[in-house]
Amino acid sequence: MFRKILIANRGEIAVRVIRTCRALGIPTVAVYSEVDRHALHVLQADEAICIGAPEPNESYLNIPRIIEAAQQAGADAIHPGYGFLSENATFSQACQDANITFIGPPPEVISSLGDKLTARKLMLENNIPVTPGALLEGDDLNAWKQQAETLGYPIMIKASAGGGGKGMRVVHHPDEFEAACKNAASEARSAFGDDRVYMEKYIANPRHIEVQIFADTHGHAIHLFERECSIQRRHQKIIEECPSPVIDEALRTKMGETAVQAALAANYVNAGTVEFLFDPSDRSFYFLEVNTRLQVEHPITECITGLDLVQWQIMIASGQPLPLSQEQIQRDGHAIECRLYAEDAERQFAPSPGTITGLHMPTGPGIRVDEGVYEGAEVPVYYDPILSKLVCYGPDRETTRQRMVDALRHTAILGLNTSISFLIDALEHEAFRSGDLSTHFIQQHMADWRPKRDDKDLAAIAFLLNEYLMPAQKSHTSSSGDHEELPTPWQTIGTWRIGQS
Ligand code: MV4
User: Is 37 within a domain?
Assistant: First the structure.
């Protein structure tokens, strides 16, 4: 087993990885940027090393500096979390070159699956269903148009290096085809330095279903069922759940087996997610891409399987075979995850950084909180504004949904704006209740949503109560061993309800 693991990340996912390391008795090293000196992951790790300025390129994306930190601390493995360097083949390679185990797939796997065209070709060759489509090679626009005609409109142009919806265009009519190709290619060139594009038949009202896979270094692969992630805004997921309300047992088995075939075709190692588009009109599904990392929404899979996915990642990285066969993997109940973001509903959900002046998280049966912050913590402007994740689990979908609504109503995050009341209204929407989800859910059902309740006033009142009734100095020990005062040391005085009708 590893001597020491460095976590090349921050926030709730770094905290999550540290928790499993503690359970396994493996010492941890946090890395942090200059604005994260007092961040939760720094407080929780056994050691912490500052790796540079706040800008991600200077710190959390700085490969040489992170490798150097691992060597300095004597870490023999690095967990990349999600985002940052987690799907970076160069980083996986740099770890290998430094004789440090990257807890994730080998560099060749990351690069071949990271390129959407290469991945698409690989899946086609292995009889994995992909959306009918065509590569746009060469520069014969008329030949391309001919291919589009054969596919039938509407079509979608996608960037090979794509991600986050960049370089993507829907084309409804041949007249728009040329401009869409050019725009998609130029957007892809400026975003990824790679202007290769391809086209697919456009699925009008898809649902986003993904399958969790694991593969070991001994050639075995298994799946841990599906998650549905249809509730998203601008390619940012907001609510995820499993099992998917639209997938029956036969389809679950078929999609799971397809995902395992995809993993084997790619010589996959470690945790991955095979994404599919599901077309409810004919219940067909199509391979989209493979995410070569542990995902934000992995806790819902942990809830229904009872497994620790970070532990599995560490075991596989240390060379151990998968501990269970497919038949031994059981599923029970229903789980939902909500991402709690620091964002301002009144400004198109723009990031809303600041100081957390008060914090109360819910607890109780079937509630799990993956926290990334604490009362008094600063939320910097430089990074993804996810604060914490709230995960609820129950025997069935409706029990879990109600549990989540109640848990959100008993959550108070003061000092900055959050997505909490938006989440409550999404979960309470009739379409969500009935499981009628689609990737257009927010656009279709919540486009005109405005915060109805006076959350800000309630938050201010709660804040003042805390400040005047219960002042309490907290101090903590920094990574260097010095005692330092936290900037805003208030203490919660009990629960208050934010966002209740
Ligand atoms: C599609 C599609 C419809 N038809 N492909 C968006 C992200 C990228 N990885 C793939 N995406 C899509 N591909 C075809 N042929 C619709 C989307 C899509 C989407 C997919 C999953 C989750 C949310 C989405 C939001 C908008 C569009």
Answer: yes
